[in-house]
Structure formats: structure tokens, C-alpha cells
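Human: We require from you a protein record containing the residue sequence and its fold in C-alpha cell form, and nothing else.

Assistant:
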Amino acid sequence: MATLAPPDLRDARAEFAGGRSYLAACTMGLATHGSRAAVMADLDAAAAGHADPVAYTAIVERTRASFGELVGVDASRVAIGSQASVFAGLIAASVPDGAEVLCVEGDFSSMVLPFAHAGRGIRLRIAPLGGLADAITADTWLVAFSLVQSATGEVANAAAIRAAARRHGARTLCDATQAVGWMPVDAADYDAVICHAYKWLCAPRGVAFLAISEDFAPIVRPVFAGWYAGGDPWVSCYGHEVELAADASRFDVSPAWQAFVGAEPALELFASLDAEAVYAHTTGLAAAFRAGLGLDAPERASAIVTWADADGRDLARLAEAGIAASGRAGRARVAFHVFNDDQDVADALAALER
């Protein structure tokens, strides 16, 4: 059974005041000590009239760089914003008229609705996750999918999807919101990767990222361009004759400053961790819990475990035991993160045996 070793994960756990009996990172992450201190200090400064917008810009840039480090791309390939659905809408706005977009049956709606309502004759086709690679054809312009399914915790066969997309000349858009933070993700493997940081990256809500490839970026229209999309946001504040940034920051959405204040320490923490060690720890705990319930092992390891719970009875048992979990689509759902350990597995299993 997994434990809180090696040392860097023990140090990571020390950054969280909570963690014991919290099995809901897939719903909302826990704030780190560093994030709490930063937000409180910023509130004090703002209340005293000492908030500094230029300093906020530096915070945003450091956070952008940390995300790039997490997903293996240069910061120049990363755009910042506040919501995953906005970035999905950005991509949807650039799908050619009448083109086909292939999405996953039952995927999180933020990865489907922007394409379903894009208009312009765009054709949305839906396939089950397990058959997504086989569903890609020469007519498919874009494959949009979540790397880890929110409702079930199922991990996509990303290698097969990417290979099929390359074979048929289709673009790939991957939502890694339920993956980055516990699972190694290489954004360079896709045309675009979206991630909201308030779950596994333990940032405040309102911090999202888009990593986009160099050859896909010129195809995407900066339809949400505002003052922050200029080469120098403090020069591009007024007028229409503004030259947008040459890199991915041309897709930036003006940042929620206070959210990025809290996100900076959290992203810095996760960027400093050994991604393979985090993956082994989180999936090891999930595997132990799954075995304790007698559930079959998934085809690809996941830090999220779900099982049928249509009447919510198991979720209620967990709640009665003081364990934070969640229910989605008629299933109970638990998640194991760096702040969890073997005791959390044992406590959750004991609660379900009552």
C-alpha cells in the first residue's frame, strides 16, 4: 500500500493544514499554507490601499511559467485566463465552418457545449471514450476530450487518440483539469491543452491555462482579446491599434489578480514535485481503496475511484464518518492526492463497511 514517501511528498503534505479525510481533490483542491498566507497578505495590502497592479503582473508571469514547467512547454506557449470553458470557446470559434468536431459521450459539458453551440454548420459527433480513437475519420477536424473523465475517473487512451488523430490529420484538444497535479502530462503531445487549476493544483478558482502548439496557434482567432493580450499589457490599454503579443499570451484573458496571488505558491509547489512520485503515490492509494471495495482494476491507473451509488447511500456513509467525497452521475466518487495516506484509505473503507 502507498505511503507518504519519498521525502518530497511528506514535505508537500506539510503544506496543507487539511488533508485527513479529504477525498475530494477532484471537486476542489485544498489551499496550501503558502496560498493562504499570500491571499491574506494581499487582502491586507489592498485594504490599506497598497495593492500594486504591476506586481500582480509579475505574479501572473511566474504562475504561467510554473504551469509551463508542469506540462513540459515553454511559458511562451501558455495563455492564462479564468475558466476552462472560455478556452474551449476560443478553440470552437476557430473551427472551420461545417467542420466535424468529435467529443466524448458524457464528458464534462465545458468541453462539449462550446462546440455544440458554435453554429456555422459545425458538426458535433459523440463517441464513447473507449472507442474515441476508432471514431476519428478523415472528416474529423478536431478531437476534443478530457484526459481523465470527471464523472467516472476513467483515463483516456491518449496515445491511441493522438495516433489516430495524426493518421487522419485531425487536431487534438485535451482538457487536463482532472489530470495535471497527480498525473504527468506533456502538453507538447497535443495541439492544445486546457487546465483549470482549482482542483488538483489546489489554486483558488479563477485560474486557468491554455497550452497551445506553435503550428496551431496561428489558426486560432484571438476572439477574446483585451488589454492583457497585447505584447505589453500596460501599453495596450487603449484604442484599436494594438499589436497583440507574438506568443500564446495573445490569447490571455485579463487575470483575476487575487486568484493568481493564491495560485502562485500552489503552482510553484506542484512544479517542484517529482511527477512520477506523485503519480505512484496517488494511484497506489486509489488502487488499495479499489481493492478494498472489491472493484476491478481499471485499464489505466487513476487517482479517482467511482462506483455505482444511485441512492447516495455510500456517499452518505462517508459523510457521516466525516469524510469529504462527492457524487456524480449516480456514482460515488473519491480522489487521492498528495495530502492523503494509507489512513485515509482505511478510514473510507471502514465507513463503507458500516
Notes: The first strand starts at residue 78 and ends at 81. Strands lie at 78-81, 100-104, 123-127, 140-146, 171-175, 192-196, 208-212, 304-308, 326-328, 331-335. The longest helix spans residues 53-71. The mean pLDDT is 94.
